[in-house]
Design goal:
By secondary structure, this protein is of the alpha+beta class. It contains 17 helices and twelve strands. The chain has two domains: 226 residues, no CATH class; 178 residues, no CATH class.
C-alpha cells in the first residue's frame, strides 16, 4: 500500500541521524529520493518515462560531444593543411613590377627572432593544356631549397621529388587532383599559357611554354591539390617577365599564432612598397565561418539536451501525483516543505546525472573512433558520407577538447537541476488533509 510505503520510509528516516550527505541534502531526504527512483509493481510506466529521459539526455550529450569534436578536428586539420601549402606571413609587392630588392628584405626579416624560414616566390595566373583538357591554375615559382623552410611540399610528394624543379629545365609539379583532371602522368608534357602577351608579326599573342611534369603532390586539401602548379622561380621570372624581381617573400614563424603580431611589427620596420599579410588575414573569412558554425552547432544541440532535460519535468509531475499520499504522511510526521522538495529534486537530478554520464562516455568513445565508425557506416549504407570535394579534406577528423566536454557536462547538469525545480516545488505544496481525504 502507498501509506505503508510512506510509513516505512518515515520510520527508516526517523531512525537515522540526519547527517548531511551533500551540502544541501540530509541523509533521510537522499534515502527516500533514491527509493522513489526504484520501480514498484504499479508504476512501471513512470520508470519507463524516466529511462526515456535518461536516454534522451545521454543521446543529446553524446551528439554534442561528437559534433564539437568533429568541428575542432576539422578546424585544426584544415588549418594545418592550409599552412602546409602557404606561409605564416607574406610580404607581397604592391605594384605589378614585383619586389626588386627582395634579398635585402629577406636579410632584414631573417634577423627577427620569431622567423625560422624565408623564401621568395613568383605568383601568377595561367592555363594548363594537355590535349583537349584545359584547366585554370595558380602558378607559383619557388626556390626548391628555400621553399622547404616555409612550406611542407617535400613531405607531401606523391610522385617524383620536389628538388627536381631545376632552373632552366622547365619542370612542373602539380596537385594530385589537377593532374587527374588533366589526365597526365610524371614525365609527360603540359602546355602553360599565361596572360602576358608577346608581340608577333600577326599581333599580340599570349605567352606559351611547354613544361615536363616532374612530380605530383597531395595535401588532401582541394584548393591546393586542384588549382596549384609549382615551377622553378627562375623559370617563373622569365615567363612572367619580372627580371630579377619576385612577387614577394614568404615567412615561417616558430609560433604560428604570433603571426598577426609579427606582421604588425615588420610593417613598422620595413621600408619597402609591399603589403604584409598573415595567415589569419589570408583565410580570415573561412576561419570566422568555421568558428561561427561551431558556436551555432553548440547552441542547436544544447537545445536537444534541453528538450531531454525537460522530459524530467513530466516524469516528476507524474511521480508527485503518484506519491501524494506518501508526501502527506511525511508532512504529518514533521517533514518540512523544503525536505519534500529536496526528495524529488534528488530523483530528478539522479536521472540527469546518469544520462549525462552515459552521454559523456558514449560521446567520447564515439568521437575517439570516428575513423573506424565512418568507413563502417559507408560500407553498411553503400554510399560515401565524406566527400573531399565538398568538405575540402579527405577524411573526417576529430579532436576531443577537455574544456568542451566539461562545458557540456556542466550545462547538462544545470539543465537537469532546473528541470526539477517546478515539480519539486509542487510536491512541497501538497496539503496532507487534501491528499489523504480519499485514502
Amino acid at each position: 500500500m502507498v501509506i505503508g510505503d510512506a510509513a516505512y520510509n518515515a520510520r527508516s528516516a526517523a531512525g537515522t541521524v540526519p547527517l548531511p550527505i551533500a551540502p544541501f541534502v540530509s541523509s533521510y531526504e537522499l534515502i527516500i529520493g533514491l527509493r522513489y527512483t526504484r520501480a514498484k509493481r504499479r508504476n512501471h510506466f513512470i520508470s519507463f518515462i524516466s529511462l526515456i529521459s535518461m536516454g534522451g539526455m545521454a543521446l543529446g550529450v553524446a551528439a554534442l560531444i561528437v559534433v564539437l569534436s568533429v568541428m575542432n578536428g576539422f578546424q585544426e586539420e584544415l588549418r594545418s593543411r592550409i599552412l602546409a601549402s602557404i606561409s605564416h606571413v607574406e610580404i607581397r609587392a604592391s605594384g605589378s613590377g614585383g619586389l626588386a630588392d627582395w634579398k635585402a628584405v629577406a636579410g632584414q626579416v631573417s634577423g627577427q627572432p620569431q622567423v625560422i624560414g624565408v623564401a621568395p616566390y613568383v605568383e601568377g595566373q595561367g592555363l594548363l593544356a594537355v590535349g583537349e583538357n584545359v584547366r585554370g591554375v595558380l602558378v607559383r615559382g619557388v626556390d626548391p631549397t628555400l621553399e622547404n623552410t616555409v612550406a611542407d611540399f617535400d613531405k607531401h610528394m606523391k610522385r617524383g621529388r620536389f628538388d627536381e624543379l631545376r632552373a632552366g629545365e622547365f619542370g612542373i609539379i602539380l596537385g594530385a587532383d589537377l593532374a587527374a583532371r588533366l589526365n597526365i602522368g610524371v614525365g609527360e608534357r603540359v602546355m602553360l599559357v599565361t596572360p602576358q602577351a608577346q608581340i608577333t608579326p600577326i599581333g599580340a599573342m599570349p605567352r606559351m611554354k611547354q613544361f615536363r611534369l616532374v612530380g605530383i603532390f597531395e595535401f588532401g586539401l582541394n584548393d591546393a591539390d586542384g588549382t596549384l602548379a609549382l615551377i622553378n622561380i627562375a623559370d617563373a621570372q622569365k615567363i612572367y617577365q619580372l627580371g630579377d624581381a619576385v612577387s614577394g617573400v614568404r615567412l615561417k614563424l616558430d609560433d604560428l599564432f604570433a603571426a598577426p603580431r609579427v606582421a604588425r611589427e615588420l610593417a613598422g620596420k620595413l621600408r619597402v612598397d609591399a603589403q604584409l599579410r598573415d595567415w589569419t588575414m589570408m583565410n580570415a573569412n573561412f576561419f570566422r565561418a568555421v568558428a561561427l558554425e561551431k558556436k551555432m552547432m553548440f547552441i542547436i544541440l544544447t537545445l536537444i539536451v534541453a528538450v531531454a532535460a525537460f522530459n524530467i519535468v513530466s516524469t516528476l509531475v507524474m511521480v508527485v501525483t503518484d506519491k501524494q499520499a506518501d508526501i502527506a504522511i511525511l508532512r504529518t510526521l514533521g517533514a518540512p516543505p523544503s525536505s519534500i522538495m529536496k526528495i524529488f529534486m534528488v530523483q530528478g537530478v539522479l536521472i540527469g546525472v546518469i544520462g549525462t554520464v552515459l552521454g559523456v562516455l558514449g560521446g567520447t568513445l564515439l568521437a575517439s573512433n570516428l575513423d573506424t565508425v565512418v568507413p563502417a557506416l559507408e560500407r553498411l549504407l553503400g554510399t560515401r558520407l565524406w566527400d573531399k570535394n565538398v568538405y575540402l579534406i579527405s577524411e573526417l577528423p576529430s579532436k576531443i577538447v577537455a574544456a568542451d566536454v566539461l562545458l557540456i557536462t556542466v550545462v547538462s547538469f544545470v539543465l537537469s537541476v532546473v528541470a526539477t525545480v517546478y515539480p519539486s516545488w509542487r510536491a512541497s505544496r501538497v496539503q496532507p488533509a487534501e491528499a489523504l481525504r480519499y485514502e
